Amino acid sequence: MNRIISLLVLLLSLSCEHDKPKQDNSDAKGIDLETTRNKEQHGFLLDSSAYFVDSVVRSFVEFSIQTLPNENYTYEIYQASLNPDQITDAIISVNRCAYAKEKAENSGYLSQAENVGFMGPFNLFIFYDGASNTFTMPVPVPSSPLLPLSISFENISSNRHKDLVVDFRIRNSSYKEIYFLFNNKPSKVFQWKNFDGLGTKESEAYGFEFNPGNGRVRDIVVYNAQIKAPKAEIDPFIYKPEILNSTELLKNFFYVPAQGKYFSTKNGLEE
User: Fold this and answer.
1) Residues 204, 264: Cα–Cα separation, whole Å
2) Distance from the first to the final alpha carbon of the chain
3) Where is 253: in which H helix or E strand?
4) Can you say how many angstroms the Cα of residue 37 is from the centroid of all Cα atoms in its chain?
5) DSSP secondary-structure letter at 266?
6) Using CA atoms, how far apart are residues 56 and 44, in angstroms rounded to an integer?
7) Cys-Cys link to 167, which of 52, 131, 150, 158 (CB 3.0-4.6 A)?
8) Are 160 and 86 in contact (CB under 8 A)?
């Protein structure tokens, strides 16, 4: 286990040294599309043609993370109303798997990188605000790029708009993160495992519910669950298992506004 952790630290340090975006010291830097929106009669990016959307998104991605020339990355756009203005916003998920593999091969650590699923800052997401027609700087999610981020939305902080839920893989485990928007910038407020030990006898899994709490923000209830046994041999780094939920309560998390995070009182106050 110590060897794996050391290797992860090494790979992350190598990745971050070269992949850090060239930007100023601000927490987020939106690009105003005023100069480009006039090229489309519709005005806002999400109402534009697919070709125009692709050109704008790729221009921002390549500028903000300094991609290699002709880098083969992929992205997906997920639309939802993510703040109180009721205007459609978007999350853009970016996957740099090809770059991760190329980087590992060129570094001489290909075998080690393969053993940890090419773990590194090669999955990221960008928030697009529909009202201001701007992007925020990318949020990296250190994970295995063999699978892109899984993006979904839930009513957690409000019934009037959605909140961002990000699921990602690290070797044979999966994690869930929840983000709220503060001043139109995504901030992580919760993280927990979806499952761990996939393909082993020590596997574990969890289910989630978002239930009304004492305040306006919903509680997050975590239940013990099980991984349904696959019928054939699997690749534990990319296989997406079926989770069998139960009613066995594990933890109840509640949101603390002053901290901007979720905590649980089971076994004492803890994140």
Assistant:
1) 20
2) 24
3) strand 243-256
4) 28
5) T
6) 11
7) 150
8) yes
pLDDT (tens digit, 0 to 9) for every residue of the chain, 271 residues total?
444 334 443 344 434 333 433 333 344 444 444 444 434 444 578 888 999 999 999 999 999 999 999 999 999 999 999 999 989 999 999 999 999 999 999 999 999 999 999 999 999 999 999 999 999 999 999 999 999 999 999 999 999 999 999 999 999 999 999 999 999 999 999 999 999 999 999 999 999 999 998 889 999 999 999 999 888 999 999 999 999 999 999 999 999 999 999 999 754 455 5
Do residues 169 and 147 make contact, with C-beta atoms less than 8 angstroms apart? yes
Domain range list for the chain = 2-17+27-264
Q: Which residues pair with 53 in a beta bridge?
A: none
User: Can you read off the two tokens belonging to residue 109?
Assistant: 């650590």
Alpha-carbon distance 91 to 165, whole Å? 10
